[in-house]
Amino acid sequence: MARPTPLSGFPEWLPDGRIVEQHVLDVLRRTFELHGFAGIETRAVEPLDQLLRKGETSKEVYVLRRLHDEADAGADGSDRAGQLGLHFDLTVPFARYVLENAGHLAFPFRRYQIQKVWRGERPQDGRFREFVQADIDVVGAGDLPYHYEVELPLVMADALGALRALGVPPVRILVNNRKVAEGFYRGLGLSDVEAVLRGIDKLDKVGPDAVAELLVAEAGATPAQAAACLELAGVRGDDASVVERVRDLADRHGATTDLLEEGLSELGALLLAAAERAPGVMVADLKIARGLDYYTGSVYETVLVGHEDLGSICSGGRYDTLASDGATTYPGVGLSIGVSRLVSRLLSAGLVRATRSVPSAVLVAVTSEDGRSRSDAVAAALRARGIPVEVAPSAAKFGKQIRHADRRGIPYVWFLGDTDAEGATAPDQVKDIRSGEQVPADATTWAPPEQDLFPRVVPGEPTA
Amino acid sequence: MARPTPLSGFPEWLPDGRIVEQHVLDVLRRTFELHGFAGIETRAVEPLDQLLRKGETSKEVYVLRRLHDEADAGADGSDRAGQLGLHFDLTVPFARYVLENAGHLAFPFRRYQIQKVWRGERPQDGRFREFVQADIDVVGAGDLPYHYEVELPLVMADALGALRALGVPPVRILVNNRKVAEGFYRGLGLSDVEAVLRGIDKLDKVGPDAVAELLVAEAGATPAQAAACLELAGVRGDDASVVERVRDLADRHGATTDLLEEGLSELGALLLAAAERAPGVMVADLKIARGLDYYTGSVYETVLVGHEDLGSICSGGRYDTLASDGATTYPGVGLSIGVSRLVSRLLSAGLVRATRSVPSAVLVAVTSEDGRSRSDAVAAALRARGIPVEVAPSAAKFGKQIRHADRRGIPYVWFLGDTDAEGATAPDQVKDIRSGEQVPADATTWAPPEQDLFPRVVPGEPTA
Prior knowledge:
Two copies of one chain form a homodimer. With 464 residues, chain A is an alpha+beta fold. Helix content of chain A is 36%, strand content 21%. A nine-stranded mixed beta sheet of chain A has the order 1-5-6-12-11-10-7-9-8. Chain A has a five-stranded mixed beta sheet with strand order 15-14-16-17-18, with helices on both faces. In chain A, strands 2-4 form a two-stranded antiparallel sheet. The radius of gyration of chain A is 28 Å and the shape is elongated. Residues 71-78 of chain A have low confidence and may be disordered.
């Protein structure tokens, strides 16, 4: 087999990169659990017809076929009954899980879910075909109070804030409220709200002039209405003045509606809570539209400060109908972190690094192959006290064993005490191979300093 | 959407089952790291031609097709170039990872890998189409000393032993050595070693008489040779006497060879080390054949004591060629735990249970919606001290809030102190809803007993 090459869009990390990813995942999980979210995991596949219910993403789905079931793979895609596809997000599977298990869950049900998803999109920087998402959602049976729309982004602020200690840059969570946008557009007299949102969604990509043309051409807006929509999209701020500015704007354009007022009061409450509980993190940004049409209240996007080019690393919103079984409707609110996108940037920009690439704090040297069991016993004694350790691969010269530890990044090498002719055994010694310092040590009491115990993730020296 | 039903072969757990699985995975990960194994994760897909190199499993592979790429899914399966399939184990992807990254890894390279794999087999009890494996392997560049064949099953013995505290039954690791079997068969004069192994592999399923017939019919054995092979397969024991019994057997049949002696000396060393480091866990069982033809030394299978019907929950062995890039050959030794198989039995037989199904130890009650921020502040104070907590969904009557905690399995409910007309605030109170005991509490100092802090996994009351 020739040396294989990576598959574009399917990222993999070397062991030190995986340590970074694993630490990020551990911090997220811990934060989610501190906030009372239960972890679930769903299967990787869903029936194809469920995955295709949202038209937009249908092109991205990977369909599965068993190699020897040639028949069920109708090449024209017409025979979909029973076909399975890989999930492209964690929301569709979660909605199905809620319906399937509703009788066993207590609502409002809080869950986190950290799994890979797959999309057959063209790979780009920060956009992968296989990637890890970390989602939190709260879902109610029948109803779900607004305060969860305040809580959920604050949980993410807490989780992403906890990553700061690893060297992850600060984030800014941008919030908007569909009711504000829709209320304002309708107040202006625009009825094709979807079309307006689609246009506004392109603002960062194509600029205001092109969006104004789009709104006229596709959303039936007059140039004045288009200008008002762009004025709304330009509102941004992190305090209650945002609400006042939108109110003034609506007044000027005669666009005040009950829906707008409801949205503004929600947005105002969110900004107030955010200023108290996560100062400086949340910003109202009235141009945030989110493409997906099932959001019905708050919508969120998150940028890594200084890395805005990466796009949103944590997005979501409120949906009045996450799932429905006919009898009961399940509204929800949730956000999803693009873990692979985040970790890929952390690594490529050198923002963080692992202090070493192996778990082992100690390499126990082997004096002779016959005496390997003595080294094994020392290793077992250290492990029993929670110290990660491995035994040297061979009874090579000590210089070679030390170089092996050095190459693997293991900070300490343990040497067994010699036994003299009378059978008296000298104490063992442990050497810090970074400083060269070597001291007598007993495997039942010695421990490395806490900072050397396991690999840690620390701020790196950014490359650019 | 009607209520969906589970997909056969794709197991999912309710939140309390997931807590069990997550605890099992955490214990495995911690043990592997204590033994110096670095965690890696590989993509879920491999090029189809790589997956099909082992002929036997080809039928089980799930092939991927992008929904809008109808063209690349040649329905006759002939156009395989560039096609991707889901990996069916973690060994094939690991071998590819080693070749791809050899220049960045220090050998012998120790890695663990915990991921889902997929096989399109017919689902049965304990046999799934999607399941989690937890693998450890050591791989060398060029060579790999025998002592790793002793170490690796002992790491698994340690990991599976650590699960005992959760209520997992003890395990028995059955070991054999290909060199013993092959040396003996060749000494008998049988040259089609593969055919003999295939026959012996069926012993538990079809019994000795049928195997004897098979050996005669398919491995070219005489009835006397077949009987000798069955005699070897009947040897079992956990001490050095096993080696002596095989030696005697070989003597009697004139089947002693250098290869047999080499295998016996390896097996003897393994049993000796095992008796010292994991007494009672490892048993030599000379009928263990393992179907896969790439094993070249030790082979391992593991049964859960009292649940032998489940089949092996941890298998593996030594392979002289895990991978090769022409210039260098990478020998390895590894074992793989079938986590889903194990967890599915733990849950279905009631062997273990989670003490609750949510992370939250505390539900902070809400006195009035206007005062929700006071409850949020208490929750934040508790969380900052590592206590998992959630805030009540609504300012319902306290009885209802307590019932909500009870339904979710949250042991403590926190009540805010009332503020009287003069603005003086009474102390908060916390109630253990299991005992009904309610005491004054301060969010900056109170903590639940350690055993209530997070859900734990404890022995259950087995159902049968």
